[in-house]
Amino acid sequence: MQILDGKALSIKIKNQIKEEVSRKKDSGASIPHLCAILVGNDPASETYVRNKIKSCEEIGFKSSLFRYESSISEAELLHQIDVINNDPDIHGLLVQLPLPKHIDVSKVVEKIDYRKDVDGFHPMNIGRMAKNLPCALPATPYGILKILEEYNIETKGKNCVVVGRSQIVGSPISILMSRPAYPGNATVTVCHSHTIDLASYTRKADIIIAAVGIPQLIKADMVKEGAVIIDVGMNRIDDASKKSGFRLVGDVDFNEVKDKCSYITPVPGGVGPMTIACLLLNTLQATN
Ligand code: NAD
Description:
Bound molecules: nicotinamide-adenine-dinucleotide
Distance between the termini: 39 Å
CATH class of the largest domain: Alpha Beta
Strand content: 15-25%
CATH topology of the largest domain: Rossmann fold
């Protein structure tokens, strides 16, 4: 079994972006500028946004954080997005999710200028992705493709089972894995909460991509010998031995599955760090 080291790959990608930024600086070209909008003070969202801003600083991007109270009206938020859309100095805009219940997420995502949509969630980008046209890919699926590419994992003709059909991971990665491209050209099955007998699908898979949010759902007896395992799950479980009182585990039971598979992404250190690296790649591409 080989570990798919997303952390190492994310550092490599960030260093490549850093070099590109310094070339831009030397030539007087625009420096990528990522803007994040954070509504309210959800602790997990605070951490995600902080990490994104910190990564921007590390690689020489400009960054801005616009914070709003959770009481902001939908109309006001949409107006603020418009202001950023029209600011030529800002190249990438992300709105940290989730948003308060009174705000329609679809309206917010659709309001972002799709050319600045570095999360790759805008219907224009999703449509272009489905048509295999150049676009900003959703950052987590993009990170998965980068991992498969880095380790030269064959995907053509493979049986790929995606577990989960969310808008941000399961659904887009299932489209990407069946695209006529590399990585892609796989025969993809999407399993979800209404799937009957999940194991009967995963046992036939050459590649399993798990994006469910259920700790250690995928057990060894659900996995074929030699399968490639991409574990997107990031679940907190209680752990009294940790100072924080919890630890992160994936949707795959790593200890059970590791001796049966050919490749596996660890949690943490697999898909997670690649998501931020790919967000930065999308911002760089939005600047060019
Ligand atoms: P989500 O809650 O939006 O979707 C979960 C999906 O799992 C749904 O499509 C549902 O139909 C499916 N599902 C639920 N129970 C199931 C079952 N028993 N069998 C099969 N399918 C089932 O989740 P999401 O936003 O895609 O996130 C999934 C996991 O990935 C979470 O742990 C999340 O924290 C993690 N995540 C990680 C990253 C990263 O950067 N590594 C990014 C996004 C999400």
